[in-house]
């Protein structure tokens, strides 16, 4: 019999744990391990002052709700994302990965060009567009809430398609797998 550790968790963490259990279908120990790793990783980034999460204050269709930025489900295998539409996948998972430093500063520079974004993500506009502040008005074809990457604000492209003729999901899932 192994050593059991008891943790006191708040209601929000408990809800995330239950959501992760439901979404993944994995056993409790595996989900708990993933949740603990995600929290440890977030704590380490915070301690080393690399935590670049932007505050989320408004709720609208273009804004990511705080509960959608669930660390328990953010970096799991992409086949678990089938229930999310490609735009939602980009606005939740890609946003979180970019904000947590999964892309280099050179990649971020390239993501601001149409050619690179078309090749890497299959989208017709630059993935990222520089913003002067968190409160800048959103440009057309970009989500309203800017993200903060390496201390700078950017708007994330909102034009994602999932049709036979134009399937951006494959490109997005490939990037997520490579950077997880």
Word description of this protein:
The two termini are 33 Å apart. The protein has helices at residues 11-24, 28-47, 86-99, 105-110, 114-121, 168-179; strands at residues 128-131, 147-149, 152-156. It is built from six helices and three strands. With 180 residues, the chain is mainly alpha-helical. The chain has one domain (11-179).
Q: Main sheet? A: 3 strands, antiparallel
Instruction: Give a count of the beta strands, DSSP E runs of length 2 or more.
Output: 3
Strand content: 5-15%
SSE pattern, N- to C-terminal: HHHHHEEEH
Poorly predicted runs are: 4-8, 46-78
Oligomer: single chain
Helical proportion, percent range: 40-55%
The assigned structural class equals mainly alpha
Q: Which sequence of strands runs across the widest sheet?
A: 1-3-2
Rg, please?
17 Å
Provide a count of the helices: 6
N/C terminus separation: 33 Å
Write down the domain tally. Answer: 1
Please tell me what the overall shape is.
Answer: globular
Average pLDDT rating: 75
Short key terms for the protein model shown above:
3 strands, 180 residues, three-stranded antiparallel sheet, globular, mainly alpha
């Amino acid at each position: 019999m192994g050593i059991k550790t008891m943790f006191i968790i708040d209601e929000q963490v408990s809800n995330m744990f239950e959501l992760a259990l439901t979404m993944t279908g994995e056993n409790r120990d595996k989900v708990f391990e993933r949740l603990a790793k995600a929290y440890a990783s977030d704590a380490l980034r915070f301690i080393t002052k690399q935590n670049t999460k932007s505050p989320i204050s408004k709720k609208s269709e273009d804004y990511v709700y705080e509960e959608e930025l669930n660390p328990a489900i953010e970096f799991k295998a992409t086949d678990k994302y089938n229930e999310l539409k490609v735009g939602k996948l980009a606005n939740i998972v890609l946003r979180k990965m970019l904000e947590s430093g999964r892309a280099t500063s050179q990649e971020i520079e390239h993501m601001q060009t149409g050619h690179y974004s078309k090749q890497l993500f299959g989208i017709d506009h630059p993935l990222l567009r520089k913003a002067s502040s968190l409160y800048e008005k959103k440009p057309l074809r970009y989500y309203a809430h800017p993200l903060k990457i390496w201390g700078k604000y950017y708007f994330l492209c909102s034009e994602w398609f999932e049709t036979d003729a134009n399937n951006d999901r494959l490109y997005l899932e490939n990037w997520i797998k490579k950077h997880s």
